[in-house]
Each structure stands twice: as structure tokens, then as C-alpha cells.
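Problem statement: downstream parser choked on a complex file, so we are re-checking the raw output for the iron/sulfur cluster run. The parser issue turned out to be on our end (a line-ending mismatch), but while we're here, posting the original submission so the record is complete.
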Amino acid sequence: MKGAERIEIDRRYCKGCMLCKYICPCDVYDLGQERSDLDYLMPHVARIENCKVCGLCEQHCPDMVLTVVAKKKGKEKE
Amino acid sequence: MNPLGEKYLRKDFLPFLFCPGCGDGMIVQAFLQAVDDLGCVDDLALTAGIGCSAWIGVYMHVDILKVLHGRAIPAAIGIKATNPSRKVVTFTGDGDCLAIGGNHLLHAARRNIDMTVVMVNNQIYAMTGGQVAPSTAVGSKTQTTPYGNLERQLNGCKVAIAAGATMVSRWSTAHPKQLIKTFKKALNHKGFSFIEIMSQCPVQTGRYLLGSGSPQFNFQWLKDHCMKEEDPSKWAEIEAQGNIPVGDFLQVEQPEFMAEVARMNQRVKEAQAKGGDR
Ligand SMILES: Cc1ncc(C[n+]2csc(CCOP(=O)(O)OP(=O)(O)O)c2C)c(N)n1
Ligand code: SF4
Ligand code: SF4
Ligand SMILES: [Mg+2]
């Protein structure tokens, strides 16, 4: 099964709109407590193990700050 | 910054001036995806007028003319006339395109100029604080219509079709996949393409028209109200329910203006070589 190795959030430009949390079908995000450089509360990747790497959050992010990095093939069991 | 942003955005212009959750940034991304898929970034030339949506093209590392309010289409025609090899794309808002610039839309469509107009419709003048636009529904309360809008709505796609556009589509920011496909079709279409994108403006549209400033609420509103229907005879029914038909509505081939000019020039030259003048 597909999985994400990590999800990068670019803290320089995140405006905390939280559309990623709204759009994600797999409940990966929570509202976090950390602030971005623009002083907005950022999403927190709380359940990376749920991520199916569908790319919806990355594709919808209005500030293009999300990068979903897929696990490399054959690394699933690590 | 995601890889698409790394590749194509002007880093020194970031962050986007758009408010949190604005649809305009989603349109930047969808457009860049289409450009990346086609590998045509070096062929592009962009123009934009004034408004939040007019900033969409400014963030891309592409030649752009940012001009007076409403005048993005004539600027694009100028580029096309002097450099027909460019794929010319105009980013404009519902106010920029249908109000102050409405006349230009009609005549560019009528002449079938080979260019793409991307009209971002948030149903309001967003940048200036939420004034009524030609795209605002009857009865809506805005900053300038506190007792309800009396003017009937102008439908950009119907105007474009009536004026002679040869490709017409409408999608929303809730349809990124379809939008990317349509962008690609338009970039390869030889003639005038009009793409309307229903987009969320949580700040002004949210405040005045939809009653919530939440990006989620405004995004969901588009999901709930934009319905795929490509048959114009069924639009009235959808619109009567307060919904918005989306889809790829029209694509036909017609003689393109700049190509016709080149043909005419050739014809006249040949006639002159024989001693005539036409
Ligand atoms: C000649 C002129 N008239 C008026 C304005 C003020 N003005 C700036 S943006 C705008 C409306 C833009 O609305 P729209 O095109 O819908 O863009 P949005 O901000 O909603 O994306 C107006 C009236 C101006 N800049 N120039
Ligand atoms: S890639 Fe898909 S599943 Fe993974 S976090 Fe984003 S929206 Fe959720
Ligand atoms: S005012 Fe509306 S359209 Fe303009 S940047 Fe803010 S959310 Fe976007
Ligand atoms: Mg507008």
C-alpha cells in the first residue's frame, strides 16, 4: 500500500487556512499549536500513517506550501 | 514550497498577497501544473488587469504585462499581434472582465483572437472591499447594495459564447483536475478561449454574500453549488435552483484573426508584385 514518508509544510508561507485538514479524506491533519513565519497557527501532521499520498492537500493548498513525500518502493516495511 | 512552486514561482515576490484560504492561489497552482505538463513555460506571455485575481500571473516566472483596470485583453491582443508565436493568457476578475473591461471581452471573442482569458469569478469586487459586480446575484447585499442588488446578473460564459468565443469552459477551485485539463486544452486551442473559474473569497464574498468568513465554508459552497452540466438547454433549470453549471461547454474551429491578417498581408503582397494593390 502507498504511504507517505513525510509531509513538508513550508512555514515561511503557511497562512493557516486549514483547507488541507478539511480536504484530506484520511484525517491526517490536526490544527497545530505552532505558528508560521506569517504568525498563523499551522496544521500539524498528526496521523501520517493514514496518508494515502492522494495529493489532494498538496494540490488544493492555496499557498503551495505542502509537499507530500511518498515512501520509496520497497521501504514500506521499515 | 511544493516542487511546482520551487520550479516556477518568483521567490522574491512571496508570500502571495491573497488572504488565507483564497481560491486565487489554487488557480496559480492548477495553471502551473498545466504549463508543466505541456512544457510550454517559455512560450507563454501573460497579461493582467487590476484586482486580487489579477495578481495570479504575477507570481509566475513568466513575462507579464500588468496594466490598467479592465485593459488586460487589449494588452494581450497587442502581444499576440507583435509576437504570434506566444501563447498569450490573460488573468482577470469578474469585475475587471465583465464591468470595466466588458467591451474588450466582446470584441476579442468576436475576432477569435488566439488567446486565453481566465476569468476568476468570486461574484464581487474583492480587492476594493466587496462592492457589487455584474456577476453578483440579484437581491445580494454588498457594500454598495445594502438594500439588495437590483441589477440582473451577467453570465460570463453566455456572453463569451454569444460573442463568438471558440472555446468556453467553467469550473471552480473545487475542480482542480478538470481545470488543469481545460487549461491544457485552452493553451493548445487555436482561437479565443474563455475559462471562467468560480473561486472562493472568504473575506468579501464570504462576508457579504455567503455569511461566513471560513475558507472551509466558502470552499464547500462551491462544491455544493457547482454542477456539471454541459448541455445549455438544461442550464436554466440549474440556475433557477441557485446553482452554477460547470463543464467544458464549447470548442469549435473558426478562422483565427492573426492568421487571417497574415494571409491577407501575403495576398496583398502577391497582388502588388503583379502591379495591383488587392
Ligand atoms: C480605472 C479604475 N477604476 C477603479 C479601480 C478600483 N478597483 C480596483 S480592483 C477593482 C475591482 C476588481 O474586482 P474583480 O475584477 O472582480 O477582482 P477581484 O479583486 O474580485 O479578484 C476596482 C473597482 C481601479 N483600480 N481603476
Ligand atoms: S496526500 Fe491525501 S491522504 Fe495524504 S495528507 Fe494529503 S489529502 Fe490526506
Ligand atoms: S479579498 Fe478575497 S479574493 Fe482578494 S485575496 Fe482576499 S480572499 Fe482572495
Ligand atoms: Mg471579483
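For whoever reads this later: Chain B touches chain A at residues 1-5, 9, 14-16, 18-26, 28-30, 33, 173, 176, 215-216, 219-220 (CB under 8 Å).
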